[in-house]
Amino acid sequence: MAEREAAQWASRWGLVAGADEARRLARMGQGRMAGFVAPGATATELQLLACWGAFIALVDDGFDQGPEPASPAEAKAALTPLVAVTSGAGPGTAPRTPAVAALQDLWGRTAAGTAPRWRERFAAAYASFAEATCEEARWRESGFVPSLREYVRLRRRTITVLPLLLVAERFLPEYPQADVLRDICADVIAWTNDLADAATERAGQVGLVDVLARERACDRGEAAAIARTTIEDRLDDFDTAAREQTQPPSPHIAAAGDRIELISTFLYGAVTWQHESQRYRAPLPAQRPTSRPAADPVEAAVVRLERRLSLAVAAGGAVTDHCAGRVLESALLLALLRARDTHHQEQQQLTAHLEQRRCGADPLDALLIDACLRPETLPPDAADAAEPVVGDAATVTSAGGRGRLKRSMLHAVLHALGGLRLSNEDTPAPGSGTLSSFTTVNLLAVRVLYAHATGSPHTVSTGERFHLTHLLDESDGRLAWESSAATHLLGLHALQSYRPGHQLIGEAVTGLMLTRDPEGGVPFLDSQDVWLSAVAGLAFLGRPAPRRYTARMGQFVAAWQAPDGGWPFASGIRQSDVDTATRCMEFLNALDPHRYRHHLHRGAAYLTSRAGPDGGFPTWLHGDDPDLDMTAGAVLALIPHRPAHTPLITAATRFILDSQHPDGTWDPSWTLSESSVILRAVDALDVACAVPGTDLPRITAATVRATARLLATQHRDGGWGRTPDSDSDALSTAQALPVIARHGPPHATAAAVGHLLSRQDATGSFPAPPDQVGPRPLPFDYPVVADLHTLAALNRRTGQSPLRATMPPVRVTGPRGWPGRARRGS
Question: Number of folded domains in the chain?
Fold first, then answer.
């Protein structure tokens, strides 16, 4: 609602000059900004904050947007009448521009009922912003190069945080001691903005990264890492100031608590919005290669990777990487917009995106693209071409038996995209028992789509339709329902089939538009920040530089523990899962087992409740089919608590051993890479050796087989692919390296490390094909995953991992010695 109000307000006052400007405003998500910085505010207050955000974005940003930034004279001419409005002097003789008229309306609504002292403070803050903006323009025009101190002082005033923060505070009592907290808040938000813009700054622009690069005589990549460390220092300053104001003998204790909470929420909400907003999605700064060979090339590569990864951690401790767009979700959104006959330019953008993806698409993506863009070419048996993807038919009542439902889902998708004829015989039966939230919505959506497509609406009950609508209405602040755009869009297509004018659809489309990646594609997930933060935190603990971020990362992870004791993979969603729970427990136990003992105790109880009778653990709910990854993760998470969970660990270890194939592999779960599942299983077997009652000879034999498999499939370039016949990639290699380093011959480890080093790019990152899948087996791409696994692998190769395995190394050589059989791409 705040999003819609801000857009309508900006249009009503003439701030939006044409469709392009309206789309630019929509992409910023000012309503989202308001919700993040003031989550407890009333609807009216959120709308006001969103309008202020729109005003700042459309008017104040005009000074550095466009082909040529504003000159000092132009900036002064535009800002002087605006300052006059907030000071109460009126715009004077200046023309009543749309900006002046809009601010008069906005200021009147904002100032109503406020104290004179607050109005004076706000007027001073806005005048300071105007003066600083003109000064920045003078710097730009004269080519002045500021010092770091000069830049920081000016940037605090140009970011417009202080005026907006004062709007959020306007009805609170006067509290001058908050000035230091406000300044820190403005610094953190401004510097986070600068980091995101660092790689796209134009000639003449002055930014924190450039200032640091000049002052420290370093490259922009290193300067960006220094900037991120400086942000962390400033956050420490905030904590120190807040502590001083709320502890005796401070005279401000009574007044401090609420104000500190408001400013802290504003700060962390603003940086969360910055990381989510498309406005701040920019490439990373490059790092200058060293001019002479490093004494330790591995250490040099890790340092460059650490610099890159430090930028992935938001100020609040979350790792907020963006998922790349995917064909399935992009096509579903395009089809929904066509059915609603809205967002015509976005339709054109999505169409162009899909056309571009068609060249080189795999068979399933090609089928989806053709169904959406060329439905007349879709044969009646089109879904049969994708039959290998969905696998064998299985019962829909088991969340683990996904084949039959997946087949029906694929048919329903092809119907929504290209009008594939559906058959009553393929309609899935109503669910029984307890299903995960994702399975529930997918099942309801498919049943509704089948019912209306086959002219049999009576086959779906009114209760099922109400249930679907109710679930889709529970977004809990995520852009996509439960973070999953695929499930959300399938549910919206079902809702469109029987309630085409429903308000939920329009609101959902607004959110889904904000998830699109820079190429215009819609991702599978809008976040998996909890899972990523736990994985990153464990990797960071092995190195001094990134370790300093882990305290806030731990706080973030702990804060999102679910009521059932597990963890969801993303903040703001309800469905917990075993994989995320085990990752979070591993991290918190390695970080500070005493501080997080209550979280770990509840997590262990959650895992206990999910264990199956055969020792295996499912992804979602007790009774679902077990997964190897989940079971291995449970062993790793419960090992520190083994006195209380020895039988559970023993049974889970036996499940892992029983699940291994003769060739040393295990069935993949939520990944595509052989080395991924081998790493998880071997890590679990290694630590299980310390548990009384485990079968040590079987563990040794299983480890030998797994290691031999990796040695036999290592390519001549030293790397591994997702499968033996795939080309080598950084992520698969990083997941194989820890096993080889511990249990394989040294020369195989050296070759793997050499391959990894050859894969590092100019930003310090390790690009790789996606390995995660969802819905299984469709891959989705969070680029930071490869970097995190590489950091963990290189840490463990040097013995710096927080994971301490208790099993002695088992040295294995491949058939006829290393490097094993040659593979395609070697």
Answer: 2
Degrees to nearest 5, angle at CA 614 with 611 and 617: 35
Same domain, 601 and 621: yes
Q: Give the residue from 523, 546, 574 where a domain finishes.
A: 523
Per DSSP, the three-state class of 785 is helix
Average confidence (pLDDT) over 538-561: 97
Peptide bond preceding 777: is omega within 30 degrees of 0, i.e. cis?
A: yes
Task: Using the CB atoms, write b or e for 484-498: b if 16+ within 10 Å.
Answer: bbbbbbbbbbbbbbb
Q: How many helices (H) and strands (E) does the chain have?
A: 35, 4
pLDDT digits (tens, 9 = 90+) for 330-385: 999 999 999 999 999 999 999 999 999 999 999 899 999 999 999 998 887 776 76
- 81 vs 104: CA distance, rounded Å: 10
State the CB neighbour count (10 A cutoff) for residue 176: 8
Q: Are residues 540 and 456 in the same domain?
A: no
Give kind and range of the element (H or E) at residue 567. Answer: strand 567-568
pLDDT tens per residue, range 22-80: 888 888 889 999 999 999 999 999 999 999 999 998 887 666 555 677 889 999 998 99
Element (H, E) at 326: strand 325-326
Sole residue written with tokens 């970097």 = 787
Structure tokens at 611: 């264990």
CA 341/CA 359 separation, integer angstroms: 27
- Same domain? For 646 and 699 the reply is yes
Question: pTM value?
Answer: 0.93
Check residue 233 and report its DSSP letter.
H
Are 592 and 709 within one domain? yes
- The amino acid present at 683, given as its one-letter code, is D
First to last CA, the chain: 55
- Which tokens sit at 4? 């819609």
Domain span at 623: 529-797
Do 409 and 489 reside in the same domain of the chain?
A: yes
Q: What is the dihedral of CA 238, 243, 249, 250, to 10 degrees?
A: 40
Same domain, 409 and 500: yes
- Closest listed residue to residue 439, CA positions, set 470, 471, 473: 471
How many Cα atoms occupy the beta-carbon half-sphere of 610 within 13 Å? 35
Give the tokens for residue 517. 């990646």
Assign residue 639 the CATH number of its domain. 1.50.10.20
Residues 508 and 644 in one domain: no
Beta bridge partners of residue 772, listed in sequence order: 671
Calculate ∠ Cα 398-402-408, nearest 5°: 115
Say which residues have a Cβ less than 8 Å from residue 387's Cβ, sequence separation at least 6: 407
Tell which residue, 342, 338, 332, 350, has the closest CA to residue 506: 342
- Measure CA 627 to chain center: 24
CB 313 within 8 Å of CB 319 = yes
Amino acid at 543: R
- In whole angstroms, give the CA distance from residue 256 to residue 463: 50
The residues near 252 (Cβ < 8 Å, ≥ 6 apart) are 175, 177, 245, 246
As a whole number of angstroms, the distance between CA 115 and CA 171 comes to 8
Does residue 564 have an active-site annotation? no
Q: For residue 277, what pLDDT is reported?
A: 79
The one catalytic residue in 526, 579, 624, 686 is: 579
For residues 786 and 308, what is the distance between their CA atoms, to the nearest angstrom? 12
Residues 6+ apart with CB under 8 A from 804: none
Strand 522-523 and strand 567-568: pairing? unpaired
Distance CA 194, CA 802 (A): 33
Can you tell me whether residue 251 is helix, strand or coil?
A: coil
